[in-house]
Predict the structure.
Amino acid sequence: MADKPVRADKASAVAELTDDFRNSSATVLTEYRGLTVKQLTELRRSLGSDTKYAVSKNTLAKRAATDAGIEGLDTLFTGPTALAFISGDPVEAAKGLRAFAKANPVLVIKGGVFEGKAITAADVNKIADLESREVLLAKLAGAMKGNLTKAAGLFQAPLSQVARLAAALQEKREKDGPAEA
């Protein structure tokens, strides 16, 4: 009978991890062996409020990933594993993890999940190389504003030409005097 509460705890842990996998825009698996509690706390803070960084047993995380419909992660669940469940911008979180791993080489990025598909550690680094969503939106807005300004200039050009033509005709009429009908 002592096993039932433990199994219930495991079932609830798997259910929570499954929800985390399903509700995250991306998930990054890391090996944290050698990091102190202070360093783990620092890592959690650096990732921000949109990322949940959780240490998990490999068997439970593997089962949760399978329950969430994610395949291809089984080989990554070796050694001490922590998962970064990202609900915000995956680019910012990937940059934060990579920067922390550079400063603390004992943190190893193993791979993860992006848009429901398994990715490698190299893919995580490629995501970190992208510009953030805000920067991309700002560039898009700038490009659109530039094109709208050009369009407005093109639309105004014929109007100003018509106005100049009307002014020239008016001037000519005034010089020539009233036309006889």
Q: What stands out?
A: The first strand starts at residue 26 and ends at 31. The first helix runs from residue 3 to 23.
